[in-house]
Amino acid sequence: MGDHFNLPPGFRFYPSDEELVVHFLHRKAALLPCHPDLIPDLALHPYDPWDLHGKAMREGNKWYFYSRRTPRRVTGSGHWLAVGTEEPIYSNGQKIGLKKHLAFYVGSLKTNWIMHEFSLLDPISRNTKQDFIKWVICRVYEDGGSDGGGGDSGAELSCLDEVFLSIDDDPDEISSPNLMYKRKTK
Question: Which residue of 53, 57, 97, 98 pairs with 21 in a disulfide if CB–CB is 3.0 to 4.6 A?
Fold first, then answer.
C-alpha cells in the first residue's frame, strides 16, 4: 500500500475501471467527499513514472492519482503518448467515461511504463461543477510483458536496459558488488 494511507489489514485497493470513474472521479469532479480519501491530487508534468513512489497512492505495482487533463504530457525525462483507441466505461448500461491508454517514451524509445487515464463524458448530476471535464484519474504501472502484449520492434527499454545504457565505464566490463563479468574477446 502507499506510504501515506492506512487501511485495515487485509484490505486492498483494487478498483475496477467503473469504480474508478463512478466512486472516485465523479465524486472529485462534483466536489463530493470521498471516504477514505485515498487518491492524491498530483500534477503530471514534473514526475517521471519511476518518481511516483511516495507521491501517488500505491497498491502493488500500480500508482493512482488525480490530475488535471492536459494536452501536453511532458515530464523531465520523456513524454506520454496515446496508444490504441479510447475505451468507453459503462455503468448500469450507460456510457459514463473514457479510458485512454498511454505509453511513456524517453526520446523516441518506448518504455514499459503504461498509464490509463480515465475521464468523465458528461456531468452525472447537477451538482457537478462546470470544470468536471478538467479532472482525470490516472493508473500508472510498469508492464512486465507477461500478458503477451507487446511485439513492438524491440525498441522498448526495460529498467535493466536503462542501467546498462547508463554505464560510462568500459563496455567490455560490467561489475556489481556480487558479480564481475568480462566479455570474452576472440
Answer: 97
Q: pLDDT tens across 14-57, in order?
A: 899 999 999 999 888 888 887 778 899 998 878 999 999 999 99
C-alpha cell at 153: 520492434
Kindly report, residue by residue over 74-117, the tens digit of the pLDDT: 998 999 999 989 999 999 999 999 999 999 999 999 999 999 99
> Under a CB-based contact definition with an 8 Å cutoff, are residues 86 and 17 in contact?
no
74/162 Cα distance (integer angstroms): 19
Specify the pTM.
0.71
With CA atoms as reference, report the closest residue to 65 among 74, 76, 54.
54
185: its cell numbers: 574477446
Residues in contact with 106: Cβ distance below 8 Å, sequence separation at least 6, in sequence order: 77, 78, 157
Integer Rg of the chain from CA:
20
- What span, in angstroms and rounded, lies between the C-alpha atoms of 138 and 66? 6
Cell numbers describing residue 129: 461543477
**DSSP 8-state symbol, 132:** G
